[in-house]
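Worked problem 6 (solution included).
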Amino acid sequence: MSETTQPATAPKGKLALYWAASCGGCEIAVLGIDDKILKVAEAFDIVLWPCATDGKVRDVERMADGEIDVCLFNGSIRTSEQEYMAQLLRRKSKVLVAFGSCASEGCIPGLANLNTKEEILDTSYRDTVSTENPKGIRPQVETEVPEGTLHLPLLYDTVKTLGQTVPVDYSLPGCPPEADRIWDAITAILTGNLPAAGSVIGSNTTVCDTCSRKRSEKKIKKFYRTWEIIPDEETCLLEQGLLCCGIATRAGCGALCPQVNSPCIGCYGANDGVADYGARLMSALASVIDSDDPGEIDRIIQEGIPDPVGSFYRFSLAQSLLRRNKLAKKNGNGAAAATPAKASS
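Solution. The predicted structure is:
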């Protein structure tokens, strides 16, 4: 009786996913690819995904360097543990992807760079109305208890992007990346159809290019906060005086926010070749303000955009040329004070 030869199956690759300083939305977004996650499982063994599987850091530490084929790393870096994991996963991975805005730009956690860690801890453990902490207890890197020494990661003064911490092969923007873009990236990885190393996986047009709203000449006399007006559903939101960031933001989301009458907030970041997203957005807006009078221009901006950092650098402060508030020299207690931020036009 002859034996039937079974066709050899290609060995699976190894995939890791990790979550640093972020909200967790990128973890959920991965599942947004629906049943295509089964195709991912066919191609990869998931060796680390703390949100969904029981993997151990020590198991990753025992792997050979480069043994992980792809790592999707979401979240920015603000603690010593996150920095260690970034270095470990960089060493163990052939391809490291800065997955989502927090990893690629710093995102909302990066806004903490407006303050020092002492100010942040004061707010968290002392200054809020709901906080009762009469002994002033703060998290410590080491705490002695009868059972031994407890350890916590060191909180850094400055939030960094993944690319400011270790070399990154590719970035996938978005807060979080849309499911279709995630699948595009996974398909590109599986087929080897990847752009040049260091590239952003995605479109290089703007949200405005993909938005279906009617556009004409933009002449802005007043910026409105989103709660001040109910815009019509057909005209360009920027032309109606709402700060819509689509004019300077990379496409890839499908212009979903403008579709529901809400302005783009810029979560897909800058296009290729733009050194500073906030500066690019400010330059674009300056070109549409309908005034030549410096005083009137200041009034239009200050009244309509009272939070310039939160408006122009909501997602990109940590990656920007500004990076953070200036840190003063450390005082006698080893603490550094930040120069107060000033909202200016």
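Discussion: Residues 115-155 form one domain.
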